[in-house]
Design a protein that fits this description.
Chains A, B: GO terms for molecular function: aspartate-tRNA ligase activity; ATP binding; RNA binding. Chains A, B: It comes from Mytilus galloprovincialis (Mediterranean mussel). Chains A, B: It is found in: Cytoplasm. Chains A, B: One of its GO terms (cellular component) is aminoacyl-tRNA synthetase multienzyme complex. Two copies of one chain form a homodimer. Chain A is an alpha+beta fold. Chain A has three domains: about 55 residues, Nucleic acid-binding proteins (OB fold (Dihydrolipoamide Acetyltransferase, E2P), Beta Barrel), CATH 2.40.50.140; about 30 residues, no CATH class; about 300 residues, Bira Bifunctional Protein, Domain 2 (BirA Bifunctional Protein, domain 2, 2-Layer Sandwich), CATH 3.30.930. The first copy, chain A, contains twelve helices and 14 strands. Chain A has an eight-stranded mixed sheet. In chain A, a hairpin with a 2-residue loop joins β12 and β13. Chain A is elongated and about 80 Å long.
Chain lengths: ~400, ~400
């Protein structure tokens, strides 16, 4: 529809228009627009697509810092219920460009290091980790499950001689957790590699990969990071090169020195993780670190025990701003040891027979890990909720849009 | 375990060994190995991981051309049941490197053209295309579905101002089809873009993208393509630059001229598609072509009708070796027309209310399409079964490994 100049103010907000006119330079700098030196003299305006007259939320409210008490802001459910409007804010436009960057730099680094991208099934015949927290699917006349992790398939690709693999795809967790950092469906950035002498080769690759991601985000998406910071204030993300690696024991010592009462082999609670992040930030000035050699007791049966002391294991977690964003380990690649460890952990050998059997035809020592894409984006930007970095989030209470 | 030189022949095939020794040049070229000019003088051999003494299949059988009648080959189910051994063939090592290339060149081209990578949910609250052929998931106390296509979410990203998006992810189809080209779970390479003047801008981008993929596979993965060709013979894949675009009408005329009895607006049967592929190869010497302007009657309700003649639509399919690998269209972006088209097609408006509502706040004209990754790899290489290009395929009868 062609509009006369006098009717333009009647066009609904958020409509899409075509404009025919002339761009003219101006004598006086225009302060109220993002273009300071030119203005557009319209001759004709067409409405390509008209928005409904009443919008469920206003973009200017949705982009306002939550600390700005005097003016309206938009709560999270209203945002998510009207996600296509909410996503139009400059903040969200920036967040999802940064998230695309996380994936790009993850892949770029790994492909440069001879990793091969693979794709693995999400519908599986047996619940991967014992059956808890798994979604059930009707599969023709059978029952199937949604994969909680691509781990078995990454490992099979390694035993199938692919040497170094990564895969990006949905991960499903039927956990009834309504926290700031849990989703029932998220994007896993997973990698697995055979190593030559020691699993620390893998820690080094993953640590360097994170540095590659952080540096490229910082250098190539600076404007987007600043845009997000205007709505959601946070300290710039700090990291060291090479990455800081501490042992679990060192981490626990640091916590104990600061008043936390815990034993050497106790698992880290979420508050303890948070505190450890703050202590390490104070001491080493980094928001990213790696914790190596977790107690064997707190890790799954497929984790390789430390060959010199079975109290410990060849496993590691990685943290951003005191929250875990990667959990990984050297995996047991010997079927006999795997059966033994499963028995010790009380895992039913019948349920994991095919997993164990997949190591019977020659399997190289290997290690890997899985990263939550949304968590990396959230924590890099210092955001407070994972729903801000999942375009269409899924949690126990939200299945739409 | 350290082995003496005399016991090496007792090491089981497919075991993984470490060798310590010296590389020495030789006077006479060695014909029986891939290294012709040097040989390895072992001093010590360790078995890192021992394979079971009996293998369910032999790699030399698994890599043999199926035309070689005199010697053993391995049938598909045995291969898939023992996938980690089967994947060790040079052929499979090559196939999955080529498939990784398909994804890489798809992304590279689109990112170069300012497309943004997005991730969209696979668990959805309503069956996307009316409820047929959809897998059901138990979602806590509710019922949910596995997405048959990311289309709605790509379109929402477009209406949310992202302008050009792509997404790579699992697509689920509960079709009980046991054919050479159907899987219940496959990887979709999907894209969607707003255009300025005409949906042919989108056809051009997608056509150029395929040329980019084909050229890079041909030039950068030549050795892998030859390796696959040694086991599975086929003609090299041919394509034109720019891509050949024919109208549906022209396609039907070509078929009619060659004895096929069909009306202007009849849908193409699979055999007709195959024949059309052969006729176009003869006439234009290309294995890739685009068929534009399908009859409106054979396309879904969300397809934009041709504005000049409602018999036709702004929609297209793309073909490789006579098989469809992309289906796409300009989408209806106006909620009133969308409701009208749904009614004409007998679609229940209640079920698609949220789909229609997503266009109520300003939506630019846009078009896109979805590509089956495994099909592209299969047809580029001239393979006869999609199970050869899915690392761990899923069909109505196979859920393992």
């Amino acid at each position: 529809m062609l509009y006369s100049i006098f009717l333009i103010c009647s066009i609904n907000k958020e409509s899409i228009i075509d404009v025919e006119g002339f761009v003219r330079t101006v004598d006086q700098k225009i302060e109220s627009c993002s273009q300071h030196d030119v203005e557009l003299h319209c001759e004709q305006v067409w409405v390509v697509s008209s928005a409904a007259p009443r919008l469920p939320l206003l973009i200017e409210d949705a982009v306002r810092p939550e600390t700005d008490d005097a003016l309206a802001t938009v709560n999270q459910d209203t945002r998510l219920d009207n996600r296509i409007l909410d996503l139009r804010t400059t903040t969200n436009q920036a967040i999802y460009r940064i998230e695309a960057g996380v994936c790009k730099y993850f892949r770029d680094y790994l492909m440069e290091k001879d990793f091969i991208e693979i794709h693995v099934p999400k519908i599986i015949s047996a619940a991967s980790e014992g059956g808890a927290n798994v979604f059930t699917v009707s599969y023709f006349k059978d029952k199937a499950y949604l994969a909680q992790s691509p781990q078995l398939y990454k490992q099979m690709a390694i035993t199938a001689d692919f040497d170094r693999v990564f895969t990006i795809g949905q991960v499903f967790r039927a956990e009834d957790s309504n926290t700031h950092r849990h989703l029932t469906e998220f994007v896993g950035l997973d990698l697995e590699m055979a190593f030559k002498f020691h699993y620390h080769e893998v820690i080094e690759v993953i640590g360097d990969m994170f540095v590659h991601i952080f540096k490229n985000l910082r250098d190539n998406l600076q404007e987007e990071i600043e845009t997000v910071g205007r709505q959601y204030k946070s300290e710039p993300f700090k990291f060291l090169e090479p990455s800081l690696v501490l042992t679990y024991k060192e981490g626990v010592r640091l916590l104990r020195d600061n008043g936390v009462d815990m034993g050497d082999e106790d698992d880290l609670s979420t508050p303890a993780e948070k505190l450890l992040g703050r202590l390490i930030k104070q001491k080493y000035d980094t928001d990213f670190f790696i914790l190596d050699k977790f107690p064997l007791a707190v890790r799954p049966f497929y984790t390789m025990p430390d060959p010199t002391d079975k109290k410990w294991s060849n496993s590691y977690d990685m943290f951003m701003r005191g929250e875990e964003i990667l959990s990984g380990a050297q995996r047991v690649h010997c079927p006999d040891l795997l059966s033994e460890r499963a028995k010790e952990k009380g895992v039913d050998l019948e349920h994991i027979k095919s997993y164990i059997d997949s190591f019977r035809y020659g399997a190289p020592p290997h290690a890997g890990g899985g990263i939550g894409m949304e968590r990396v984006t959230m924590l890099f930007l210092g955001l407070d909720n994972i729903r801000k970095t999942s375009m269409f989030p899924r949690d126990p209470k939200r299945l739409t849009p």
